[in-house]
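Newbie here. two chains, one complex. Structure please?
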Amino acid sequence: MHLSVLTFIIALPLLTGIVILLLPMSEKKAPRLLALISSLIALALSVWAYARYDIPAGGYQFIQKVDWLPALGISYHVGVDGISLPLVLLAGIVTASGVAVSWNIEERPREFFSFLMFLAASVFGVFCSLDLFMLFFFFEMAVFPKYLMILIWGSPKTREYGAMKLTLYLFLGSVVALVGVLAMVFLSGANTFDMLALEKAGFAADFQRLWFPFVFFGFAVLGGLFPFHSWAPDGHVAAPTAVSMLLAGVEMKVGAFAALRAGIMLLPEGARYWAYVILALATVNVVYGALIALVQTDFKYVIGFSSVSHMGLVMIGFATLNREGLMGAGLQMFSHGVMTALFFAIVGMVYDRTHTREINRLGGLIKVMPMAAVGFIISGLVSMGMPGFSGFTAEFPVFMGAWRSAPIVAVVAVLGIIVTAGYILLVVRRVFFGELPENMTGIIENVSGLDKFTIGFLSLIMIALGLFPSLMVPLVNSGVDRILLILGGR
Amino acid sequence: MGISSGNITPILSILPEILLLILALVVLGLDLGLKKFSPALIGWVTVVGLIFSAIGGVMISGHQSGGLYIWGGMLRQDAAASVFQVIFITGAALTAFFALEDSKCVSAEFYFLLLISTLGMCLLAASSDLIMIYLSLELASIPLYILAGFHYRETSSVEAGLKYMLYGAVASTIMVFGFTFLYGFSGTTQLYAINAAIQTGQIPPMVTTMAVMLILAGVGYKISAVPFHFWAPDVYEGAPTVVAGFISTASKAAGFAVLLRLALTILPVLSPYSPYLLAAMAVASMLVGNLLAINQKNFKRLLAYSSIAQAGYILVGVAASNNLGAAGVTYYLMAYLVTNLTAFALAQVIGQANSNDDISSLAGLTQRSPVLAFSLLVSLLSLGGIPPFAGFVGKLLVFSAGVQAGMAWLVIVAVLNSVLSLYYYLKVLKIAFLDHPRETPLIKIETNSWRIAFIVCLAGILILGVIILPWYGWSITAASSLALY
């Protein structure tokens, strides 16, 4: 039987998770080693797929299809295009870094790494799905790893609240989207969950306008669209470092990606009808998220709200429905994923050593952990959209697209970027520069070698994409071609 | 009426029922004749016999394509009947194994009553005549009243039995009252003949609607749907846990078996409002079950309210009254059987170790027994409809049917309710996985039979959740056989 590389990428973490769970409880080292090996192999496979993808040919590649329930048109159907392949790569990168920064976790390591692997399998599965049933299957599969990881390893004060809020919001968003999807499958007479078949279904315009908001806004909850965003900061802050990285870095892209794939690409007429609503809400995301981040006193909440702000740019890019905007959104999903993973990794490293996240009680950390400071500054520059970093490559097209479709959105959203610069610089100055507080002098250790390696690895990716946009732009462009074809070549 | 003899004899076509009856007598005989044998032997004999009976059911189901009317149209042995019979017998076999862990339940009388109740359910699934429906419903219910009170030294158990019986008696009386209307309208008690008689449209729809409501009251009690659910929390809490598990799964499935047959045959003809009545019951069950479950302190009561809510989800599939809906209901009931039996088996052993059923005494379960903690996770998430567990597929199918039938609003209510339900399932998981145990008596499992049944249930949850095709095939065959008339 023909096996796609994507099948290996999905199955590997899944099987690793099961194997780790079956290890004896006393085993402390084997779980992390297995998780690291497995996530590195998954990363290598996704790099391989990335390199082997045939850009001129475009479309879905590495396809594999196995019937699951033919009577309802349900199948195990995987494949990637120019939009989803960078996200598969992103999931590989963030998973491997997440394992690396969790290396010294002491409480129940067996369950921790097992759940982390399940979470990774879930996001790989969603990004590779060409079948809506499979998409939901993999997405919902992550419910218990997410919930239990925040609950058991999260920060004690808010973990119960954060875990419950995040899990219920994400579940709510996905089941609302499910109703829309069921309508597409069963009300239209298409009777298949296969996305490639549904693309050609040609739903009536009224039908699209009615059901588009269910699918799009349902999934957009996962992507943190205003006003359904409040799970994101609370959940990310409550979560342990690796989970924050995966949730903010990858899981929010799952929502955005599904909103694009099942919302905009399957119901293009609905997308045109609702585009201005999405633009308006997403603009609020950008500005409001940045303003709230500005006034946070908790280091981790700053990053949590910055994610909300940056995901707004992705949504703006989608809603422009033009080439520049969609390409920018595709790049921004990747760039923000790497950036926010690095942010959360460094926040975690700082917290592990200082045991506080209060910005006012931190300072001068560049003296004791220079590498972390440099990494944070690089992420900050990406976040501000500085040329030479991936943020610029991604955000500039979004603004171009927005200018073309709704200039006022571009103007307001650019203001959001100014606020972003404000809070990033403020945090950098207060946390990393100035004087080290007296109670911390002499007892704070530098970050470990593995941490340094992770910081360097993630920083390099963002710089490389900033200096050589051609590493990803043609690929994403080929994915956008297909979306534009569906949208009717605007 | 289309009564045909088919290619197997009437006697042979009720082979599972006959085997059940023989088995019940054997169990009684063993008790009388062989006092010196260990009581556990009776449990094993029961399970082996049930397996034979299930095999008999599967064998004869291969011999009929459409429906085969037997005994003058009293029974209609079709694929739906066979599939449901396998569900009941599986439930009874698993319950028989779980019961061996409860020393107060290990006796010949227990197994005899269990088998007779199962026999009633099997007949109920095949009943195609109002009189037969009533008789087999009573045959299924009366042993359960005794079983609910089987821990007769505990007042709560006796109270449960009594309560269950009083509610049951009233509900079935109301249902019979509804049946009298049908007989009055049509002059026949044969289900598939009533249609033909009523389609002439001589009777005012308000009268027929009233008859439908009366019948729904009787069946609604059996499936513990709101507003006929009041018995459920008290009975689940007071009855022996194994019996509560059986009542909440097999007995509920029996109620749905007859409701499905009614919904696909006479209800739409009798009253144009019947889909809305069913939908209203679904909405009420989901809302009441989920809202009241949130604040429960007792694990068995929580499961009771959760099972009321589950009845609501399943009713979405019944209200859809289409092929996919009937298949979804069947699939859901299979999934629900293994899932809820797992949950009740956990409640049983944890309750025995703690000598109470409080949710707070689940604290630190993951330290006391990681395997049981993960089983709890599997069963509760399956109840919540999370993949890769069985409940996800069941929910997806009934919701699909709802959308297909043009009841998208009902499905929206249902999915919002499943978010609500996830809240209290996760709260229980939080207690089991995060909180520190107050006391740590070891959770001991004495019998291998309990372990075997437990593993079968867990495997069932996973298999029904991932390998969908064969079970969906059964369900859709069952669904199509119901609609043939």
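Moderator note: The mean pLDDT of chain A is 90. Residues 5-487 of chain A form one domain. Thread marked as resolved.
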